[in-house]
Amino acid sequence: ITCHAQTSSDRMCRAKFGTFAPASFDLYACAMCYTYLTNSEDVAVLPYSSYLYVRTDQTVYPKETLLTPDAENATFADMVCRTLDHDGCISWKSCCKAAHTCCQSHIQSPPGRNDSCPRTWDGFGCWEDTRPGKIVYIGCPAFLKYSVSSSKYTIV
């Protein structure tokens, strides 16, 4: 992760590939959760947007259908979940909720230090501000298939 200064007016949520206003972050994070959890050939994130794009006729939707990955909106969530099995839907919603919680935590925290690697949602975990060179461990998220929450992964 590349470190950069964060200012007190910076009430944005940072993800692995960009910084977003909270509402945009939620959609982006849910789209990425779908991508990371499913590795689907049939449904993908539309480039440069936060929508899911149906690429084939192998789903319940026609090719080129756009899906809004909003896990908080029952209608949109149901539409996305129709492309997943029951466990996949639960995992996707759990990932979206974890991303939203991470974003809310980060925007409510005091601004980070200028010499810190900034707080970030990486698609699986919520990282806090960290001094460069420090090794940090967080638990593996429960929404990952075969995850053991006592297992750890690292960022340097």
Automatic annotation (TrEMBL):
InterPro entries named among the record's database cross-references: GPCR_2_extracell_dom_sf, GPCR_2_extracellular_dom, GPCR_2_secretin-like_CS
Keywords: Receptor
Entry GO MF terms: G protein-coupled receptor activity
Record bears the keyword NADP: no
SUPFAM superfamilies, alphabetized: Hormone receptor domain
Domain G-protein coupled receptors family 2 profile intervals: 102-156
Keyword Magnesium: no
Name of the protein in question: Calcitonin receptor
Top-level taxonomy: Eukaryota, Metazoa, Spiralia, Lophotrochozoa, Mollusca
